[in-house]
Design a protein that fits this description.
single chain, about 70 residues, mainly alpha, 4 helices, about 75% helix
């Protein structure tokens, strides 16, 4: 298991609209699927669903978003 401080950092990065999944992979070695799994485990269900919806909306508008 990862250190709670590292998990918090990954969550903050994933919630940020300015950090891509590629940047998270470079810093922490997690694939996008692993980040999604971590977010699903760590966030409340409604916050996770809202995050996924926002990521999908941004991805639909930008070629290289998350």
């Amino acid at each position: 298991m990862r250190d709670p401080a590292v998990v918090d950092e990954i969550i903050q990065m994933a919630l940020s609209d300015h950090i891509s999944f590629q940047q998270i992979r470079e810093l922490h070695g997690l694939s996008p699927d692993e980040v999604q799994d971590l977010m699903r485990r760590e966030l409340k269900p409604n916050r996770y669903v809202a995050w996924r919806k926002r990521v999908k909306q941004f991805a639909d508008r930008r070629q290289f978003y998350k």
